[in-house]
Amino acid sequence: MDAFTHLGSTVREALSERGFTRPTEPQRKAIPPLAEGRNALVLAPTGTGKTETAMLPVFDHLVRARDDPDDPPRSGISALYITPLRALNRDMMDRLEWWGDRLDLEIAVRHGDTTRYERSKQADDPPDVLITTPESLQAILTGSKMRTALASVAHVVVDEVHEIASAKRGAQLTVGLERLRELAGPSQRVGLSATVGSPGEVGRFLVGHGEPDPSVPNDRSFDVVEVDVGTRIDVTVHRPEITEVDARLAGRLATTEEIASHVRAIREIAAENRSTLVFVNTRQTAEALGSRFKALSSDGGEETGAEGEGTGTEGEKTGTEGEESESGDAIPSVDVEVHHGSLSSDVRVDVEDRFKAGEIDALICTSSMELGIDVGRVDHVVQYGSPREVARLLQRVGRAGHRSDLVSRATVIASDLDDTLEAMAIARRGEAGLVEPANVHHGSLDTAANQIVGLTMDFGELHARRAYRILTRAHPFRELDEDTFREVVRELDGNRVVWLDEEADSIERSGGTWQYFYANLSMIPDEATFEVHDLSSRTRIGTLDERFVLDFSGPGETFVQRGEMWRIVDVDEEDERVNVSPVEDPGGEVPAWVGSEIPVPRPVANEVGRLRGEVAARIAEDAPLSATARGLAERYPADPSTIEAAIEPIVDHAETAHPVPTDERIVVEGAGRSIVVNAAFGHRVNETLARLLAALVGQRTGSSVGMDVDPYRIELEVPRSVDPGTVIEILESTDPDHLEAYLELALKKADTLAFTLAHVAAKFGTLKRYREGKGRFGGDRLMAALEGTPVHEEALREVFHTDLAVPETAALLERIQDGTVALVAARDRTPIGTAGDSSGREFLVPENADASVIETIRERIADDCVLLCCLHCHDWTRRTMVRRVGEQPTCPECGSTRIAALNPWNDEAVKAVRADGKDDEQERLTERAYRSASLVQAHGKRAVIAMAARGVGPDNAARIISKLREDEDNFYRDLLEQERRYARTQSFWD
């Protein structure tokens, strides 16, 4: 209770009424310095009372100031509570409202959905505490009445600060806090965060730099208050054994026996506990896993009909029908729902409330449930598949055991070799407290541009040097040099967003300032989302990403959302709306949300490599596999049977006599046009290596190179003239000092840079200028127009920051070249090299699509257009639908069957075929046309159908056609698989 003695009597009385008998550990450690008004970063798991840790001292300060007869009362906002999500705003309001009523303090919420009436009320009669988001802070900093209200702010609490520290919206917030300081003077800053590996960096991110105010004790300094999470978690990595029950489940769920075993294992865990959170890494997997549970629920009972009961932590679930488990006991059925950010807010709130009330046994969720939304007591956490990062594991496991005296318990359901070893490494590192450092987003120039405009909104006009000082007090812009700052201002001036007076060295509002600023309150890229509406119930069920809609969604297509199957009725691109109807089919596309993949850090991938090497060494010593598994189980939180099943592929690999890839050995293998570089260095290093190899191989051969990356291997699709030796020679000869320059050249025409450039240009106000009076302005033209500007520099910097790891990869090249990391070639493909990153992939790409999906593909291709061109007489062309093409296309002019089937708008290919003298590009187009004509001549309409599919050229069409099949459906399944492969790797085909 010592911590609570630092609070005044009024707050202590409220504590007693609220049932706070003793402080939690973060409250015990943090309340004393916070009560003294010190800045602090509080690191602790969700559910340990972090909100009250920060707000009780704030409430105490407000109550004491209000009741102090010698201190004149303040009329404005005294405290800001900033959260990264609107959902957290609502949740915080629910949690803090009682304190406000009890202490006679007004608390209000402000975000994008706040009504005009509420905003006006807050401006005229400001609350004592305002709960808001980083973006809403940007808006209220510029309103005249709200600026007056904000001048009283003495306390700022930033919740889940780790979540935004690595993003541009976090950089925007830090400048916003410095703008607030200009208005209100120094204020106490408190950050609440999950455990991070670099608390000093996050603390400095929170409090900023600059000269401290001598009248304010501890200004610009901060305390770090950290609760050791590793000693409070109990994580088990488990790979379920496949049983006869799973074989029956697999048939009913239209999935593999392995996935069925995962579903069964999760049901068993949920049945043994009163409330379970099931975390997955992507929204796709959440929907797919949810659909499997929905399918079980809709069966109307299990096959065995056995009565069963499961005893939970604090109660029992009885009287349910259940499938028999491995032990012969019945598995009770469980009520499961899905929760993620693309579901509509009313659906999410309903699910949260039902879970909190105990009406739902388990909630399948993504990171949407990491950030402290109150869903009541959680007894157990299931992580489906490796959590990919230590920090993410700790954050998710911390949701369980919502009392300070409880250990948080979790089970990781793992699958293959990579997934299991990765989960074991992460669990061990989590218990040891080896958390990844926060990747603070430093020096983002579009954020700087955005905040320079914000400063002109604040002041109307200000000297450039003052703007520069305010900006560089924020930690992410500490090292921004003056020359770059001036280039940014000149770009804004050229875009008519602000006006730069060079003589007076002042920055002023322009005619476009207001419009730009309110259109760019957020640094989150503006990307269209399509609302999904169920026509049968006339309800909104969620959203789909624009890329998914444009690439995959047409009438008749099926997909999973909210754990249920839907068929698209129509797509309204103008209103950005997808109308759907529910279906019962078990197969179909899963929504492809952008940016959902969690990158595996290098240290985790390195440990997986070390584990492989350790197992390989034991195999070489003829040690029994069971003994090796038992030895690892003594150091890693996994049972021996899970480890033994996971490491069997290493045994298979060792039997091939090829070296096992480890953290100190890269194995390059190849077959046909596919080369795999087995490199256990994590997503970002492998992405960097892959782009380097793709660029240099492409430069040598003059051909495009496709690539696919996971944390343990790089797969390259290369010309047949390239072999593993070519890749090894590039890695051994590339100068690490020139790596960044090579990558800049490689990114010049990459889709990822063009996509980023468009968003950065919008944040500079540049894109509007280039589009004025010019209609659509393509990515290539935009790239050429902006090269050498701060806009292009920022787009390149962002790709390097987000996707690549240049210093680490340069260090790896040095280690390869000095022999520290071995580089060897394999004669053919190896078991580890062919394994791939398959965790959960069965959910995403069903092995056999159902009949309705096949029929949809068949009809879609039949309705597509194709351009037919006779390569004998060169006179005849025809643009027609595929369904109208004859079984053996023939030229009506000359009777030839040498007909090329081309993209319907590829008139350039026709011109190339007819040209007398040809340049290199025309030669390429002509060669491709002749390959197409040869296929059509040999296989007729089937070749036309194959080449009409997305991403299927003559080479892929020939490969697909050459397969022997029992039925035509398999032909369309192969086309579907190629379309999906093309969609995954499209950004690398430039």
UniProtKB/TrEMBL annotation:
Gene Ontology MF, one: catalytic activity, acting on DNA
One GO biological process term: DNA repair
InterPro entries: ATP-dep_Helicase, DEAD/DEAH_box_helicase_dom, DNA/RNA_helicase_DEAH_CS, Helicase_ATP-bd, Helicase_C-like, Lhr-like, Lhr-like_DEAD/DEAH_assoc, Lhr_WH_dom
Keywords in alphabetical order: ATP-binding, DNA damage, DNA repair, DNA-binding, Helicase, Hydrolase, Isomerase, Nucleotide-binding
UniProt-listed Pfam families: DEAD (PF00270), DEAD_assoc (PF08494), Helicase_C (PF00271), WHD_Lhr (PF19306)
Domain Helicase ATP-binding positions: 31-214
Domain Helicase C-terminal: 258-446
UniProt region (Disordered), positions on chain: 293-331
Family label: Belongs to the Lhr helicase family. Lhr-Core subfamily.
Name of protein: DEAD/DEAH box helicase
Organism the protein comes from: Halopenitus salinus
